[in-house]
Amino acid sequence: MDVPSTPVVVLPGEAPVFEAFGDRAVFHLTGGQTGGRYTMFSSETAPGCGPPPHWHEKDDEWFLVVEGQAEFFKDGEWTAVPVGTAVYVPHGTVHAFRNVGETPLKQIIHVSPSGFETFFERCAAEFRREGGPDMAAIAGIAAEHGIHFAH
After folding, report:
1. What does the angle CA 101 – CA 124 – CA 114 come to, to the nearest 5 degrees?
2. Is the backbone of residue 36 left (phi > 0), alpha (psi -120 to 50) or beta?
3. Which of 19, 31, 79, 98 has CA atoms 20 to 30 A from the CA of 25?
4. 23-62: per-residue pLDDT in tens?
5. What CA–CA distances, in Å, run from 28 to 19, 57, 124?
6. Are 47 and 104 in contact (CB under 8 A)?
7. What is the pTM of this model?
């Protein structure tokens, strides 16, 4: 993909929004806007929710905790972190986060290279299905995007 030759400006309300896994994600910058270099989104995670431990074949991720009570899984254990914490997760590393508070957890998340927005959009479609998502289908979508759940 070509890198944009001019700055990209995405105004409030213009970014696509998808909901899955107890998260509401607003994709402020996507691969189509960054030449495939990265994706930037804000995430609002409901109390008690968060992804299970997983790893990405190619994606590096970095997080900024903006509001709420978060725990991150790294090196086989969960660690509580305060608002303002930044977390970097290189590809191939098992990780996760969860909301351990009573209010929504808000984060800014970047993924490089881009493509996470496509994964999340496809999962959101599964979560909108009558009767809820087919978790085998979710695992298949994840595998197609190089995301694997730890056992």
Report:
1. 90
2. left
3. 79
4. 999 999 999 999 999 999 999 999 999 998 999 999 999 9
5. 15, 23, 17
6. yes
7. 0.92
Residues 6+ apart with CB under 8 A from 71: 78, 79, 80, 81, 97, 98, 100
Closest to 119 (Cα-Cα) out of 70, 58, 62: 58
Which of 109, 114, 74, 113 has the alpha carbon at shortest distance from 94? 74
Residue 121 identity: E
Q: What separation, in Å, do the N-terminal and C-terminal C-alpha atoms of the chain show? A: 35
Q: Is the peptide bond before 133 cis (omega within 30 degrees of 0)?
A: no
- Structural domains of the chain, ranges and CATH numbers in brackets: 17-146 (2.60.120.10)
Residue 127 parent element (H or E): helix 116-127
Closest CA to 99 of 69, 124, 73: 69
Q: Give me the residue label for tokens 């695992």.
A: 139
The number of angstroms, rounded, from the C-alpha of 22 to the middle of its chain's C-alpha atoms is: 11
